[in-house]
TrEMBL record:
The chain crosses the membrane at residues 7-27, 47-69, 314-332. InterPro entries: Acyltransf_C, Plipid/glycerol_acylTrfase. Residues 80-202 form the Phospholipid/glycerol acyltransferase domain. Keywords: Acyltransferase, Lipid biosynthesis, Lipid metabolism, Membrane, Phospholipid biosynthesis, Phospholipid metabolism, Transferase, Transmembrane, Transmembrane helix. GO terms for biological process: phosphatidylinositol acyl-chain remodeling; phospholipid biosynthetic process. Belongs to the 1-acyl-sn-glycerol-3-phosphate acyltransferase family. PANTHER family: 1-ACYLGLYCEROL-3-PHOSPHATE ACYLTRANSFERASE-RELATED (PTHR10983), LYSOCARDIOLIPIN ACYLTRANSFERASE 1 (PTHR10983:SF16). One of its GO terms (cellular component) is endoplasmic reticulum. This is Phospholipid/glycerol acyltransferase domain-containing protein. It holds the Pfam family Acyltransf_C.
Amino acid sequence: MAVSVRGLYFVVTLFLGSFFGSIFMLGPVLPLMLLSPSWYRWITDRIVATWLTLPVALLELVFGVKVVITGDGFIPGERSVIIMNHRTRLDWMFLWCCLLRYSYLRLEKICLKAALKVVPGFGWAMQVACFIFIKRRWEEDRSHMENMLEYFCDIREPLQLLLFPEGTDLTDYTRARSDDFAEKNGLPKFEYVLHPRTTGFTFIVDTLRKGDNLDAVHDITVAYPKNIPQTERHLILGQFPREIHFHVRRYEASALPTSPSALQAWTQERWAEKEVRLRDFYAAEPRGFDREGMCRVPPCKTELRVALIKAASLFYWSSFIALSFAGLWLWAPLRLYFLVMMGVYFGQQKLIGGLELLELACHRYWKSVTGDEKEKVVDGKKE
């Protein structure tokens, strides 16, 4: 199949936006991490959020993707864990179309594979955004996840953490593996979802609860009624989804089970519900989660405001990319800065393993300094 001009435009624009954004927008802020990790986090979250509006603008304004949201919705600004079925490898990006309307993109963090952090541009921005990278080895992931979550609790910066309990997207191969798991454990076989892995989810909920940094869990079911672009390759070929449907269920954190075993059972119940919900979705005509297509919680932004944000994003990032090329062509000091920042990103990756790890180290240092000062006040003998 031939590569699509539309698909190339989409992928190249996103890459250049993240690449130049990491260099020219996020790069100047990096030194603040050494002085005040909490202020650095506050600023960089908002810078990264401006880029997260770009895929939404391209999908909806340029390619005409229709987004339908039903169910409970979000309470704007609340701290939550978002769990979602993983129908395609692109669900995490499509979710931004929902969050732009019903929440704030600056709050979102994602649990994702550690291999993605080394990708220039995208990976750099995700490191600065302090996404949680996992290696799928629980003994290692548990310690790292605990450090990251405790950091967010310490700085009191609200977050909405996206997690895919299924661990991978739905394909014939992954469905067969899920069926094998179901057969061995006496569970029903699913057609529209995979059986969830609950260890990470229960740990995240427990840690955020202890840190008083969790208001709710949002259980989102995503479906594609007309066509399903499974991978990035489909986007390059220009096969964008014509419609994306999100159904949101909101659960108060105080209403969730407290024991890990009960929370695991609760998660499995949600996935059994998803299976039924998706079966009904694809059997209906027209396909949809709610025949009335209504959301019980109104969006925090009007459609006019959303349209203006998308238009401003498309204009800004198109201009920013063009000006970045022009500046590099015309101004030697900018080329020098560009090379220095490239060295910083590649160098820290090799020496430290990621900017989010450096941020954690800076936070621990300042926390220890603050702790020493408090200790001096309590016990004047200590210096």
